[in-house]
Amino acid sequence: MSGPAFAQPGPSQPPSVTVARPVVKDIVEQTDFIGRFEAVDEVDIRARVSGYLDKVHFQDGTLVKAGDVLFTIDPRPYQNALQQAQAAVTSSQVRLEFAQSDLDRAEQLRRSGNIADQIYDQRRQSFLTAKAELDRAQAALRQAQLDVEFTQVKSPLSGRISRRLVSVGNLVNANETVLTNVLTLDPIQFYFDVDERSYLAFSRQTQGGTRTTAEGAVNEVLLTLTDGRLGQRKGQLDFVDNRLDAASGTIRARALFENKDLFLTPGLFGRVTVGASDPYKGILLPDEAIGSDQDRRVVYVVGENNVVNLKPVRIGPRIDGYRVIRDGLTGNETIVVNGLVRVRPGAPVTPQTTTLPLTRERNGT
């Protein structure tokens, strides 16, 4: 009995994979750090004189300018003291004028020998005493004028004010009672901690916060907020502390940002990107083109006859959506960038060539 002949299966085709050359371009390695914003200047507002709070001249949380009157302490006791001081100055001036004329008469009598030396000395003493009393009265007058001026509590800074902490009618103690606080918003500082390894990586490019180039260019940093909706703002690294914290193994650094729109506020979290290398020619690959072989990272290089070879590499940070290849490639190889699960070292593949764009996405970590 004969039956239909079954066709024998032909040889299997090599798996199809996507291949491309690495992206080779000038790059600068960057490192991200998390930190908080802080005001450049912040002042707790206290009165310089004691008294009962009479008026509040601001709305909570508004912007104020340096010199704006914020609070008024009841000035009437200090105005009375000022009037007393003015009267004391007038009285001292009258006594001094009388002592001056008395001394002048004694001078005339002394030249003719018609006055005893003791009487002359007494009149001179009275003159000097009256002069000293006038000086003391004038000093008391200046202090009384200051006290009246200090009943108006003014802002020493331009910035945003907090809420009032004392209500009208309460007693305010001089130099003790905190009435509110004011902080500046533009520019604003960003403090972050740098680990020891990262610090060593970019310390050669930074010295006291500036890049060590012939031009003396400022080391720029990029800011990204936690929600990522503001975009990136450029700032300047302007301070690196003089020692590492032995407990945490980190060093404190600071960046300065313009804040014209006053959107950034102290206490806000953010992420800064700091340059950690000089510009150099970098070799970049997508993360999905990098595999693992035990404890090492590898890529699959397509060689002659489309045979795949395993190539160990040493990787770096992500830049422009790619992973930096520090060692292992020259940039001229053809790399499997998609379909790694279908390849085996030493086996042929069917390559589908593509070209990687220079930039894939915003910098990641």
Summarize the structure.
With 365 residues, the chain is of the alpha+beta class. The protein has helices at residues 76-112, 117-150, 196-202, and strands at residues 16-20, 23-27, 30-39, 42-46, 51-56, 63-64, 69-73, 152-154, 159-161, 171-172, 178-183, 188-195, 206-207, 210-211, 220-225, 232-240, 250-257, 269-275, 280-285, 291-293, 296-302, 308-319, 322-327, 335-338, 350-353.
The whole-number mean of residue pLDDT values reads 85
Shape: rod-shaped
Distance between the termini: 71 Å
Strand order, main sheet: write it out.
Answer: 2-19-23-22-21-20
SS strand fraction: 35-45%
- Total beta-strand segments: 25
**Low-pLDDT ranges:** 207-216
Percent in helix: 10-25%
How would you describe what is shown here?
By secondary structure, this protein is of the alpha+beta class. Helix content is 21%, strand content 37%. It is built from three helices and 25 strands. The protein has helices at 76-112, 117-150, 196-202; strands at 16-20, 23-27, 30-39, 42-46, 51-56, 63-64, 69-73, 152-154, 159-161, 171-172, 178-183, 188-195, 206-207, 210-211, 220-225, 232-240, 250-257, 269-275, 280-285, 291-293, 296-302, 308-319, 322-327, 335-338, 350-353. The strands form six sheets. Strands 2-19-23-22-21-20 form a six-stranded antiparallel beta sheet, with no helix packed on it. The protein has a six-stranded antiparallel β-barrel with strand order 3-12-17-16-15-18. A hairpin with a 6-residue loop joins strand 15 and strand 16 (232-240). The longest helix is centred in the N-terminal third of the chain and has 37 residues, at 76-112. The radius of gyration is 40 Å and the shape is rod-shaped.
